[in-house]
Amino acid sequence: MTGKLTTAEVQARLANLNQQAGGAWRVEDDKLVREFRFKGFAEAFGFMAEVALHAEKADHHPEWQNVYNRVAVQLVTHDAGGITEKDFALAMRMESAAAHRSK
Amino acid sequence: MTGKLTTAEVQARLANLNQQAGGAWRVEDDKLVREFRFKGFAEAFGFMAEVALHAEKADHHPEWQNVYNRVAVQLVTHDAGGITEKDFALAMRMESAAAHRSK
After folding, report:
1. What are A32's strand-pairing partners?
2. Using one digit for the tens of pLDDT, what is the confidence trace for B43-57?
3. At what angle do helices A41-58 and B41-58 cross, to 10 degrees?
4. What is the distance between the alpha carbons of residues B24 and B1, in angstroms, rounded to a whole number?
C-alpha cells in the first residue's frame, strides 16, 4: 500500500503538479482538490469517462461533483488516511484527460 | 419552456415517483434529490454514463456527486427557477437506469 505523504512531501509534489496545471491544484481538508471547467456537458462528461477508466484500472477513485460544464474533484487515499502518490498519479491523469478537451 | 411546478404539483408527482422508487426521492432546497448506491464504482459510473446520454439528448442535466459506489443527485430547472416536469422525467430515467444495475 502507498503510504501517506508528509506535509513537506505533499508540498513538493503539489508545486511540481502546479507547474503543469497553472497553480490550479490545492490542498483542502487533507485532500488534493481542483475544479475543471469545460466547454459544455459533453466535454465535462467525456473527461469524467476517461478518468473513470483509469481510476477503475488503478483501483483508486476520485470524489467528484459535476454541474453542467464543471467538474470539482477531491483526491485522498482513505486507506492511508491522507494524500499519497496514488492521488498525485490520478491528478496527473486528470491533467492529461483535460488537456485535449475544449474549454 | 417547461414552467416551474407549484408545491402541490411537486408533491403529487413526488408521491407518484416514490411509489416506484420506494420513497427514496425528496425535495430539499427546492430541488428533487436522491442518493443511489450500487455494488461498486463500475456500476455507479455505468449508471452515470447512461443518464449522461439521456441528459445531453434532453438538454437537461443533473447536479451530481460520486464517491465510489454512491451517486447523489439534485434535479432542478435553473431557467424556470424551480422543479419542473423535466426534473421528474430525468428522475424517472434515473430509476430506469438504476433498476438493471447491481446494488
Report:
1. A27, A75
2. 999 999 999 999 999
3. 170
4. 28
Q: Which residues of A touch B45 (CB under 8 A)?
A: 48-49, 52, 56
Contact A61 B68 (CB under 8 A): yes
What are the two backbone dihedrals, phi and then psi, of residue A80, each rounded to the nearest 5 degrees?
A: -95, -10
A76: closest CA among A9, A86, B99?
Answer: A86
Return the number of CB contacts < 8 Å for A and B.
37
* pLDDT tens for each residue of A27-42: 999 999 999 999 999 9
DSSP B63-75: EEEEETTEEEEEE
Pairing, β B70-75 against β B31-37: antiparallel
Report, as an integer, the average pLDDT of B62-77.
98
Query: What pLDDT, in 10s, does the model give residues B92-101?
Result: 999 999 999 9
CA distance B40 to B48: 13
The string over A18-48, giving b where at least 16 C-beta atoms fall within 10 Å of a residue's C-beta and e elsewhere, is eeebeeebebeeebbbbebebeebebbbbbb
Say whether A65 and B67 touch across the interface (CB within 8 A): no
